[in-house]
Amino acid sequence: MDRYRLTARRAGFHFSALALALLGLPLVASAQPAAEHVNVVGQAASIDKSLKEQRRSDSVKSVVSADGVAQLPDENVAEAVQRLPGVSVERDQGEGRFVSVRGLGPDLNSVSINGTVIPSPNADSRAVALDVLPAELVQSLSVVKTLTPDMDANSLGGTVEVESLSAFDHDGLFYTLSGEGSHDDNTDEHSPKLSGAFSQRFSLGGGQDNFGVALAGTWGERDFGSDNVETGGAWDFTDGARLEEAEQRDYRITRERSGLGINVDYRPDDYSSYYLRTLYSRFKDSETRNAAGLEFADAQAAGTLGDAEGWRELKEREETQTIQSYVFGGERLLGAWTLAGQAGYSRSGERTPGHIAGATFEGDDDFTDAGFFSSRKPVLTAGSAFYDPAAFVLDEVEWAEQDTTDTEKNIKLDLARDYELSGQAAQVKFGGKLSRRDKDNDTEVWTYEDFDTFGITDDELLLSNYLKGRVDYGLGAFGPGISGKAVEALLDRLDAGNFYNEEESRIGDFSISEDINAAYLMNSVDIDDLRLIAGVRYEGTRQRSKGTGLRDGVFESTDNQNDYHHWLPGLHARYQLDKNTQLRAAWTNSVVRPTFEQIAPGFLIDGDEAAFGNPDLKPLESSNIDLGIEHYLGRAGVVSAFVFYKDIDNFVYNTDLAGTGAWVAFDEAATFANGDSAKLYGLELAWSQKFDWLPAPWNGVLVGANATFSRSDASISGFDAASGLQRKRDIDLPFQSDSVGNLMLGWENDQLSLRLSANYKSDALYEVASISEPFRDTRVDDQLFVDFSARYNLTPELQLSFEAQNLTDEHYYTYTGSRRYNAQYEEYGPSYKLGLTLSHF
């Protein structure tokens, strides 16, 4: 064993002994280090591969490889990437969906697949819903937190980079085929899933293994559900805390994911390479939501009874989101120059065909003896009439359909030249990128009401004609469910043209184009153990939006244009203290455009009330400083610490402009505005290590832990109706959690692999209330998810796996002002998976 490796092992022993003592694990020391053994596959191998890429990177970067994804009990890319330092996810129905980095919300980060930016399938946001991407299609995931000038500058927290499988990732033939079944504890449903991947190299022309083909595919269907109760913040705080209304919701969902990726690589000689990367992913959600609610005649305290209006409602829809990406590129060495080019086309979409957006049955009369227990998780109570279908009559049905597309086309060119600068190795690099993005949204709405006018009798509108069994609801008594087919049968008897809702159908439609022209120049130089990168990036943006507004019953076309330009300098430094330790520092600048909801061109003005987007919003600008140290502890081991600071201008928040400027005579003018500035600063810690130098069985132990602690300071301004004055107040940045952390305890040998993972994030601001009512701000509560996975090698190529998610039965909870006052509570229960995987590589 060479001296370097022995030194690294001894350093690792001292650090690990302390860590094991803190964890309360027994430690048996050995005078002689155990003989080194490298697994071909396994947790340690995948962690080690990821750390090597992180170590070589010019940016502050965290990586998880495909083997690492396979080791995690994760349904999709969002859940896999949350294991990295500083990363948390926003969940939908218990599954990870949107990614937050270093406490900054999903819209402030970007996602790229194979080097091209991925647009969002959602109508309102820029955030890419990563639950659309199955984890099986991914070769590696990384989060880049400091951007070099040759990268798109469109993220404040970080850029999630997704790389799909290449034949050159493996030597020779590679294939894997997996099948699994899952069980959802909340609904007692079972679900299947199949996935596979293949790659092989071929000899083309006079070359040897110079042409590669890789493909990966997956299909899965998951039946699950959740139980929900929410108030929407409808609390009256004038005399204690009294509830105005609440609604119980039962969700039943069938979620189908499918995806296919086909990638081709050609390397005709030592000087050139070409590639084609393709990816198609489809996410289909079929959701049925039954709801039952009460609106109290007078706001009530918990445990009291009174009169209330009641309703029951059905929402039933099928929503399909797709992401497709095609990237063609190559690289050519031309003497001292390297020429690289890439053309990309990405298209995301969300289509929701005609569906019941809401079928509402109102109670014939007020219900007596109505009330609730518990302000945190309200349990609604009412007399027997509330559970009698004959007491409810169909009042309104909203039928809707929506189609959203987001297309991004780009072409970029990079030139780099290696040279010597005063005897030191250096490289100059410059290039440019043209990006053209188009976002379109089309919504159609029909509102069916006043049924008696069209020959429907009162008896035909009774809820008893539309029943579909009883709802299996775990948070209290619920009553009957509603049949979507019965509601649709009623609508089929009516002429849809009589119910077309032109207002709802037109003011939400928009077309937004975004043209970005970018260029950069950067230079890197290696001075002994110091590597410096300095450069500047220019991004010019032309944004145009078209839509429709409604002013006091009259429709108006809108056409807005907003142009802006940014020069974004940057400086990166990496200094090698010794063979295993390096310091990093970076000063970067970035820019993020507002969301499509915020710049939407539509508006609604009705008397003294108005709601509208703001196409003239300025983009968010951030100046960022990062400082850190990384110490590598041999195989699969690292300990690191980073501090970061972000000075953000023009952050966007929702506001009410009533009483000011053109809106001085209005009672409400809801829109979006730019804040002056905000600060974000924090500390990011990470540790990972395999204890292979301990005697058996402790040499199979792996531990990984990371934690990010951050703080944000921001202020907003608005009109205070009570005082008649403009006021300011301080807030946190929305979605920013002060603490985010992961803990992984693992053990493996050649045959068995065990892993227990925990992911935690603290509470965060979810929605900002009016300037004068900070006690009405909505916050999302902290969450701790614990998952477990086990894998057993039946043969060298056949593996049995078991995974358990959400072992702590964690719920989702938002509250108004204080944790005592519910805005929304939702629980999912744990789920379990059993799988079999055949692999060859």
TrEMBL record:
SUPFAM superfamilies associated with the record: Porins (SSF56935)
Membrane topology: Multi-pass membrane protein
Segments forming domain TonB-dependent receptor-like beta-barrel: 364-807
Pfam families, per database record: Plug, TonB_dep_Rec_b-barrel
Signal peptide range in chain numbering: 1-31
Keywords of the record: Cell outer membrane, Membrane, Receptor, Signal, TonB box, Transmembrane, Transmembrane beta strand, Transport
Protein name: TonB-dependent receptor
UniProt source species: Pseudomonas mangrovi
